[in-house]
Amino acid sequence: MNAPLPSASGTAARQAEIVTALSPLLPAHALLWRNEDTVPYECDGLTAYRQKPLLVALPETEAQVAAILKVCHALQVPVVARGAGTGLSGGAMPHAMGVTLSLAKFNKILRIDPLARTASVQCGVRNLALSEAAAPMGLYYAPDPSSQIACTLGGNVAENSGGVHCLKYGLTLHNVLRVRGFTMDGEAIEFGGEALDVPGLDLLSVMVGSEGMLAVITEVLVRLVPKPMIARCIMASFDDVRKAGDAVANIIAAGIIPAGLEMMDRPMTAAVEDFVHAGYDLTAEAILLCESDGTPEEVAEEIARMEAVLAASGATRMEVSADEAQRLKFWSGRKNAFPASGRISPDYMCMDSTIPRKRVADILLAIQEMEKKYQLRCANVFHAGDGNLHPLILFDASDADQLHRCELFGADILETSVAMGGTVTGEHGVGVEKLNSMCVQFSPEERAQMLAVKTAFDPAGLLNPGKVIPTLQRCAEYGRMHVKRGMLAFAEIPRF
Amino acid sequence: MEDMAQQALIDQVKVALATDTPLHVIGHGSKLFYGEAPRGEPLDLTPLSGISSYEPSELVVTVRAGTPLAELEAVLTERNQCLAFEPPLFGGRGTVGGMISAGLAGPARASVGSVRDYVLGATLLNGRAEVLSFGGQVMKNVAGYDVSRLLAGSMGFLGVILEASLKVLPRPAATATLRFDMAQAEALVRLNEWAGKPLPLNASAWWDGALVLRLAGAEAAVAAARKALGGEVIEAGLAAQFWGGLRHQQDEFFIGAERAVEGGAALWRLSLPQTAPPLALPGEQLIEWGGAQRWLTTAQPGAQVRETALRAGGHATLFRARDKSGGVFTPLAPSLMRIHQNLKTAFDPKGIFNPGRLYTSL
């Protein structure tokens, strides 16, 4: 990534060389290299960063994947695997001198075993499609990122995707038993297994969330869980974000692990209400959605307990979903936060940091100050139960200065989150977007150790190079100091 | 005080690096029987003790590696929280560092997850004497590779865990224990069927014709499930004793196993798909984790036990034995072994930490 770009004629020659080498391995339609064919692959869900690959390969079989990797390994060609391209951090952004390996054709559910409660799927199966297929058996796949209608399980594994139910049901990591794939030299490999553990190191735990830098995934064995008999949701209003933040902590402190615990601030509520007409309280400074699922008796008990805690925490208005239609209506706004933001602003940039729950109000107040500093608006949705923020910075990308201010605003949020004891990304991944912020969160030695982990899996350094772990030089240029997590001097003093 | 303890460890590692001295990382030494034989000079972690931070409403505790597990659990109990995966304490002893390194979990594991699933972050002293932090204190964190979770079950061969942040959970509001007379094959089918239903199953154990189930969750859920499942209700005090005995391997089965080991047999831990049918292996068997963990006391040759586990879709660990010459952990595929070797070099280039403890060649 740091090498000077080759000349145009050099690039064309390299492209021709790779096309010649890969052509015998794939049908003609599965190899794209003309400009108009590769343009659709130039970015993922993070559209601010674009790069056309030298070529795109669309294998249909594992044998083809292995063969492509072998050739690329021999020719020292970088390979970027890609699922549905819904990622929000540029993890699937192509490499200028590389091959984008689209795994879209690996879209079959291979087997659902209702007794074992597992599903074996190809990596390109959509998250929601799996839950739909398992529904007749009374089962579903728990992690539900908001993009679940489009995102693939292979991509979920690469990003360790979350969703609105992670607090109770865990992240992708906690719901995957085994991944099968190929190392960069084309060798088949499996991490994890059908049993609950494996001999040796638990390599699955680094594979999940490795953003396509350790191996190419083609097949995933996931755990399915029984569908709860019912779910109900409380929508609670607060006239103060601090009270809402405290309510979140109070629910957890009362020994309750809600199935979902989400927060929206007033600007966000206004934006989504205009979009979905769910009847949100537009006067509230913050709205909490607290969900309980399980047996009817269990849910009745938990809802009553949560209502009591919310009331004691100062909720100004509470409504409990009476039926499934109303529950889904409550959620419709939260689930549509992104498109709703798209309606009120030409562009938005979604941040994804996590902070300790108790700092919810602090970060929201800090963000309000940043809005003044950078002269941009920001609406907030928030997986409050697990401290994962999604501030949506509203801007107009056609204005270079706004884009620049937006980037500074975003970096400021991430660095403040780290200083509060959190992390720069909770579920969207580092990709290319948060490379600079990694300089703040990790020391040079820690980054070097991570790079050594990559090298242990991919000695040639060809799988999705340049992502996730910034180089020393990049961090030096960025020029921000490494903040020891939560240990910034005078961390309690507002920095803005 | 604690920082002096940490500095002393760093100094000891630096000396070991300078003199090429292998180190045997040790806490209470309560799991010395587990894994391959320790080699090297002891690196005692017990001075590095204490809870660094604990905030019940964050569901996170950050604790130094040498802290006694019993001490940590007592603090969590005061706030009505727990380590949901029920790590075993052998002889009442064991430290947080040892718990993570061994990666062993107790009866609730199949329902609630493993040690790995509760590690949120760790500070590691690597083989260059660098102090590195990975992960953090928050539930969701995908910044960089999840190195902290890789430490769970690593048998200390990547480096020295100095401190870890663990997710903790509220203790269940209600529990109930039920007992059924049932043959093994039927128990395995039933356990899997029940697990596919929205029941608050928390732990299971089958031994000698009896299946014991633990339910845990909200009062209403446990009461409803109790009614739906039937079986004989075991009185709470007796039930707690039963699950404690199982968790800490002090019950009748494990006492018998230790005796058998003295007589030349071996105690194996078979980790299998939950649906694997009964195994055609002679010996005494205790089944946990809904069928996924099967303890076997047998005098059969190790190769036969390994082969049977492999064919059933899992692996076998020689948990306790006098003769471990056949290897403790199931050998790895060459592609995976290469990654293990590369990771060892990446973290501990001179190979000073717990050499040979996981695999004799590492």
Low-confidence stretches of chain A: 486-496
Give the neighbour order of strands across the main sheet of chain A: 15-12-14-13-17-18-16
Beta percentage of chain B is 25-35%
Count of distinct structural domains of chain B: 3
- Count of DSSP H/I helices of chain B: 12
**CATH-defined topology of the largest domain in chain B:** Uridine Diphospho-n-acetylenolpyruvylglucosamine Reductase, domain 3
**Shape annotation of chain B:** globular
What report would you give on this structure?
The complex is a heterodimer of chains A (496) and B (362). Chain A has 17 helices and 18 strands. Chain A is globular, with a radius of gyration of 23 Å. In chain A, the strands form 4 sheets. Chain A has a 7-stranded antiparallel β-sheet, with helices on both faces. Chain A has 496 residues and is of the alpha+beta class. In chain A, helix 14 packs parallel to helix 15 (435-441). Chain B has an 8-stranded antiparallel β-sheet, with helices on both faces. Chain B has a 5-stranded antiparallel β-sheet with strand order 3-4-8-6-7. The longest helix of chain B is centred in the first third of the chain and has 17 residues, at 2-18. Chain B has helices at 2-18, 69-78, 96-102, 109-112, 115-118, 147-150, 184-195, 219-229, 236-247, 252-262, 302-311, 334-347; strands at residues 23-26, 41-44, 51-55, 60-64, 81-82, 119-125, 131-135, 160-167, 169-170, 174-181, 201-207, 210-217, 232-234, 266-271, 284-288, 293-298, 315-320. Chain B folds into 3 domains: 2-170 and 342-347, Uridine Diphospho-n-acetylenolpyruvylglucosamine Reductase, domain 3 (2-Layer Sandwich), CATH 3.30.465.10; 174-247, Alpha-Beta Plaits (2-Layer Sandwich), CATH 3.30.70; 252-320, Alpha-Beta Plaits. Chain B is α+β, with helices and mostly antiparallel strands and 362 residues long. The chains are: A alpha+beta (496), B alpha+beta (362). Chains A and B meet through strand 9, helix 8, helix 10 and helix 16 of A and strand 7, helix 6, strand 9, helix 7 and helix 8 of B.
